[in-house]
Specification:
Two copies of one chain form a homodimer. The first copy, chain A, is mainly alpha-helical. Chain A has one domain (about 1-150, about 165-385): Glycosyltransferase. Chain A has 13 helices and twelve strands. The radius of gyration of chain A is 20 Å and the shape is globular. The interface between A and B is large, with 41 and 42 residues.
Chain lengths: ~375, ~375
């Protein structure tokens, strides 16, 4: 498996990161353009806060872990300055999107803007320990915790009381964010939080009967037989399983490691399109028609996160099933998502594997899953003996 | 063209309407099931208010215009009773969705629930003139007018002031609703409203330069170069053009008729997939990647509304281009959307015309576009000499 290492490293450092370095900075107003077409031309100038934050995180992380390239640090700090100046409303919550100049467009209805902002400033503090970065990160983290039970706040359209669902996305992201921010958090808080998020992911949202992770369950953890309750997102579940593997390493928890590997593999068997290859975006756990029209599309992040999971699972367990799947998903991913003509990868394929949006970045795709995935696989393969 | 008549009539009365009569009534709790799989089995029991209302409208309209079948009236009144009892919140706005028993699930964030409720009770009043129906319809209509400038109310996620967009959907639906409700409205109100909605559709949202109808424009009517501002939905625009044709007949406006026909044909040329056939769901008017992942799918309602437009346009103008296009769209629609094995039509095809959700009804597809389209084409062909 180790022979894959160079491909991941070279693609990251020789192609993907230079693409974002060259194409995304807004030298006039600060922050990053993320709406970039196949060749890297800007086709829209709006700034989506979570994508801004993810890019700050990415360049801070690379500076810390790959090499102290001053251009990477400048890149991270430029995005951070834009977020500091324009990102938050009066109560400190992060808007969802801004205009090119930083005027707020969409309210802070989406707590993932805050999650990635906390993660960004935490990573930046590691490489440039300014108190303001630390403060912004921990303040944001505490606001996230206080908004946990009602993350959409007044923007929720659900009538309270009839069918109170909770979503997998928040415990999942907290399981990663808590490790990312451990250097800034009180050890007691980490010790309190971690068992809770592991329990939510592995006991509450992981349905014991089917072995599948559900995207939404009732507040008491039970199954809700409705569109949202039946929804599964294999890529989301598999990504969460590599967060669980990281936690299993950090806290030396072999049982968690084994369950995360088994769950990830089971989800992959379930989500793999045996006819055309690739992993479905959404499936209804009872086999009914999913509500989402894009259910059978093949998305870049799903495949990159699956490669990270499989590399880590193989490195930790030596399980040949992980190796076999890694080879299969690697082959599909590199053949279908990587653009042979221009840098960065395609994001959106139809069921048959044909590119159906040729963009390299947009409203939902930025400098994150491709470079993080390449980095994580590279680093994991380095550890293989 | 008249030889198509029997096919539309027979499909409506011999297959589609019997399907909804047999499969959708909830004999226990009232209202209708709309989540019906390929064979007509219920796979979800939630009740989506606008689909409930559309079905009340459909059966009332058929009773008034096709034949006074008492089973059709019972069907309409059962749905109306469910909506009367459970549909509204304390201020009289219609929820978006309810559980099977009628408990509210999703708040009245979507004014189209109200639009279709007003339309439903107005049509029901025509065939069963109970004052309560009339009152509910006109009260709802006046609430819609008062919510016109801020239809999403507190559920809007847009930060006011930065980029105030208005959406094509509301003037479009009002152009139809005002005619539908004319028998209940003060003639002065109709005379006030109609020129305004025609102006919005044909001058404000119809972009003079490109000849295309935009889904969103700035409050002052100007183009906004962002994802929402560049968005076009050919089916939506073409549907609006047959509403304009109805208005042109009602108010004897030949200039409107000619512009509506020209705009509909231009939109169809623009929206037709010359490689695989069928009409795209969404396109970016500048040719950039659309935000919507389902942009290149082929949806049932788009094609049915286009057939209605083309039939009306041909009947009014005798223009051979309309005939030619009708034949082409008819062939695509009947070959791809009609299910040869079970009643009712498929709703969702991928770009290549393959069925990608086999449902006959769901959260967004109910007893509406297929039967209304079949009925409208049938009736229009009846008028051809």
């Amino acid at each position: 498996m180790k022979h894959y290492l160079q491909a991941y490293r070279n693609e990251l450092l020789g192609s993907v990161i230079p693409f974002w370095m060259e194409r995304s900075p807004d030298s006039v107003h600060g922050g990053y353009f993320t709406c970039l077409d196949q060749k890297g031309q800007v086709y829209d100038t709006d700034k989506f806060v979570w994508l801004q934050a993810r890019q700050v995180w990415m360049f801070s992380m690379l500076y810390a872990n790959v090499e102290p390239n001053p251009a990477w640090l400048r890149m991270a700090k430029d995005g951070a300055a834009f977020l500091e100046k324009h990102g938050r409303d009066a109560s400190g919550d992060f808007y969802f999107s801004l205009t090119q100049t930083g005027a707020p467009l969409v309210q802070p209805y989406n707590i993932f803007s805050d999650c990635f902002a906390a993660m960004a400033f935490s990573a930046l503090y590691k490489v440039d320990p300014q108190l303001a970065y630390r403060q912004l990160s921990t303040d944001t983290f505490h606001r996230i915790l206080s908004r946990r039970n009602n993350p959409k706040g007044t923007y929720s359209k659900t009538v309270p009381g009839t069918r109170n669902l909770k979503s997998f996305a928040l415990p999942m992201i907290l399981s990663n964010l808590t490790l990312e921010m451990e250097h800034l958090l009180d050890p007691g808080l980490v010790k309190d939080l971690v068992p809770g998020v592991i329990h939510e992911v592995m006991e509450v949202f992981l349905d014991a009967e089917s072995g599948l992770v559900l995207e939404n369950v009732l507040e008491d953890g039970s199954f809700s037989d409705c569109f949202e309750g039946r929804l599964t997102s294999p890529g989301h579940a598999i990504e969460a399983m590599w967060f669980m593997l990281d936690l299993s390493c950090r806290f030396d928890d072999e049982a968690l490691r084994d369950r995360a590997i088994a769950t990830g593999l089971k989800t992959l068997e379930y989500g793999w399109d045996t006819t055309y290859g690739g992993i479905y975006y959404f499936l209804d756990c009872k086999g009914h028609p999913p509500e989402k029209l894009e259910w059978n599309q093949k998305l870049w992040w799903v495949h990159l996160e699956t490669l990270v999971f499989l590399a880590k699972a193989y490195q930790l367990s030596g399980d040949k099933a992980c190796l076999h799947w890694f080879e299969k998903v690697h082959e599909y991913t590199w053949t279908h998502f990587r653009d042979p003509d221009y840098p960065e990868w395609f994001g959106y394929l139809d069921r048959y594997g044909r590119v159906q949006l040729s963009l390299k970045g947009g409203k939902w795709k930025g400098c994150f899953h491709v470079p993080r995935g390449l980095y994580q696989v590279w680093q994991t393969l380095e550890q293989l003996t």
